[in-house]
Amino acid sequence: MTEYVQVSTATETKQQAIDLAGPAVQQRLAGGAQIIGPVTSVFWHLGEYGTGEEWQLLLKTTTDRYPELEAHLLKHHPWANPELCAVPITLGAEGCKKWIADSVAPLPAACSRRSRTTDRSA
To answer: Are 21 and 30 in contact (CB under 8 A)?
Structure first.
């Protein structure tokens, strides 16, 4: 049985969130992403209390693809120690869950090669 998670993180700017989300979806690590903001965050960071404006990024994936998505987000996130949480999607419409699973399934090798080649006859 495939399990599903919603992954969240935050960035300082909308563009940073887009820069994290785009490649994650293109590489099929997440089926889709929503960028919400700006939001006001209240937090403890490095032992100090603070508030700030951030952009929240929500991504949907499967538990099987989560480790790769986490690695991508940590590698490309502009912050050294970003908040990164995954919460299980315990209930959801079957069509939505199928969309997530289909969207993060690796493409067959022939499809991957075909999408990277260009038609030079045009």
So the answer is: yes
Structure confidence by residue, pLDDT tens digits, 73-89: 999 999 999 999 999 99
pTM of the complete model:
0.84
Contact between 89 and 60 under an 8 Å Cβ cutoff? The reply is yes
Angle at 42 between CA 37 and CA 47, to 5 degrees: 135
Q: Are strands 48-62 and 32-45 parallel, antiparallel or unpaired?
A: antiparallel
Distance CA 14, CA 83 (A): 16
Which helix (H) or strand (E) is 22 found in, with range? helix 14-26
Q: Which helix (H) or strand (E) holds 70?
A: helix 66-76
d(CA 20, CA 73): 7
Q: Cα angle vertex 70, ends 66, 76, to 5°? A: 145
Strand, coil or helix: 85: strand
